[in-house]
Design brief:
- The protein is mainly alpha-helical.
- The chain has a domain at about 45-255.
- The chain is about 75% helix and about 0% strand.
- The chain is built from 13 helices and 2 strands; from the N terminus they run H-H-H-H-H-E-H-H-H-H-E-H-H-H-H.
- The protein has a two-stranded antiparallel sheet with strand order 1-2.
- One of its GO terms (cellular component) is plasma membrane.
- It comes from Roseivivax lentus.
- Keywords: Cell membrane, Membrane, Transmembrane, Transmembrane helix.
Length: about 325
Amino acid sequence: MAETTLTDTRPARRPMAGRVRAAMILFAIFAALPPVAAAIDDPFLVLIGTRILAYAIAALALDLILGYGAMVSFGHAAYLGFGTYAVAVLSSYGINDIFLQVAAAMIVSALFALVTGAISLRTTGVYFIMITLAFGQMAYFFFVSLSAYGGDDGYGLRQRSTVLGSDMLENDFTLYYATLVVLIGLFWLCHRIVGSRFGRVLTGIRENRVRMEAIGYAPFRYQLTAFVISGCLTSVAGVFLANQAEFVSPAFVSWHRSGELIVMVVLGGIGTLTGAIGGAVAVLLLEEVLGSLTEHWKLWFGLFLVLMVLYSPHGITGVFKKLGLGGTKQ
């Protein structure tokens, strides 16, 4: 019996272990970027890198519900907005500590996700997509209406957040590594969530909702909990985006931004966590490279996405799998 159990559990663990190794390689590459930027005297790489890391956090959070819960949220950029404006609003009142700003962003995001998720999850399929889009647009126009913070024109931050009174984040390299540490921590958290009983139930609901209900689970509660967790984690990305840009704007909350997050997850590989991070890297690097070559870069970017969907439905993760460098989808 013990031998049978060992044989049965090994296949399930291999994909997760493979993805953790892939994530460790990505994190090592991220850690090496600032020294490389310093060596070639190009500090712009660090700024771009910080932006990529922040969006990687948002994509990771979205993959938690899209990849493991089959919830296609088209309004997830709203939580980016809560994060960015938490920095702007609190700093205008002299509250610059990043821990307080993150706490405020997560509390507001949790409340918003709890209410909107409870309503949205009563629908499925395209109706869920449309209702999350509607809530996202409501958040967008709310931020546009904040005339005290620039309205549609946005609002420039006077300074970056502080850490227990220290202004260490004013240094671009420190901000970069702080964002990387948070990304690694949240990846570990999401990895633990999807590997836990909660994560297995969430995956079961994705695969066969009726069967999970038949054996006594309540899909609504599990999906709503995951929805709230994802919203809170996305707001953390917003806090770091505001510090990287030193500027906040309703543009962070538009439905286009929500679409970009979905593209990152799909391009990287849905339901892999590591793929979400790789997708964020790929999308933002393609934007930078293609944008520097032609003003019609979106045309070529769209063509690239079409080719990826046709020839690698599992995204970048699928490409590595075909090359024998990745695990299978959980």
